[in-house]
Amino acid sequence: MPLRASDIETLERATLQAVAPEAVEILPGWLLPMDGGTVGRAHSAVPLSHEQPDTGVLNAIVNRYEARGFAPVFRLPDIDAFHGMHRALQRQGFTRRQPTLTQTARVADLLAMPAGLAGELAAAPDAAWLAMFLGEGLDPVDGISRARSLARAAGTMYASWREDGQTLACGAASFSHGWLGVHGMRTAAAQRGRGLAARLLRTMAQEAERRGIERVFLQVDASNAPALSLYRRLGFGTAWPYAYWRRTQPPSA
Question: Which residues lie below 8 Å from residue 83, measured CB to CB, with a gap of 6+?
Fold first, then answer.
């Protein structure tokens, strides 16, 4: 799904509304979320445009984070226009980590899936949703941080798939800036391959359609082959790749 320049800004603003950092500062063309938790998107500076940035902004961003007592982190697209910024960060001792893909699709693509049974949507996570979200395979500290971030978000809805009183899959849906945002998808290990995640995505899409939202986005680790395969089957394509830049050594002289 081709994106306009303005779509980049609305998608990034929708992302931060969903992960809800403790504070956000603003510089021209940049959002500077600041948070003491583990959610990378909630504590990394992100550009609102993919035009070639002025590397002179780098020091201003670093200073803003350090003034509040946070380690500066950047979330930057892996595109040619940002290679100059990448090189400037390397000279400052930053290293590229955690390649990730921003993927988009049309809500209509998700609604085109076979209807089947719908999952449940709730305005707040119940104990069973949290148990699934914080369950197997997730570091407890990271899980609690992610749950707090979601809880701060305005307007998020929580999707669950339940059978016989058990929650077998969960996810969170944000609705803002013209986007359905998909976050926190989890399926119990013994239930994978049954299409439960796809059913929850269709449930989210039905709510998005009801609100007049036509586009959907998510962010997925570039190495997560099973998730990428699922999203590709559902019509998602990569809008752009990005990575996190964290300082791992002193700046070069």
Answer: none
- What is the residue-wise DSSP string for 154-190? SS-EEEEEEETTEEEEEEEEEEETTEEEEEEEEE-GG
Q: Is residue 253 part of a domain?
A: no
Residues paired with residue 25 on neighbouring β-strands, in sequence order: 32
Angle, CA 45 vertex, CA 41 and CA 51 arms, to 5°? 110
- Distance in angstroms (rounded) separating the CA atoms of residues 137 and 188: 10
51 lies in the same domain as 171: no
Neighbour count for residue 85 (Cβ, 10 Å): 21
Instruction: Answer for the pair 151, 19: CB distance below 8 angstroms, yes or no.
Output: no
* Residues 128 and 170 both lie in one domain: yes
pTM over 0.85: yes
Task: Name the pLDDT band for 138 (thresholds 50, 70, 90).
Answer: low
182 Cβ partners below 8 Å, 6+ apart?
171, 172, 173, 201, 204, 216, 217, 218
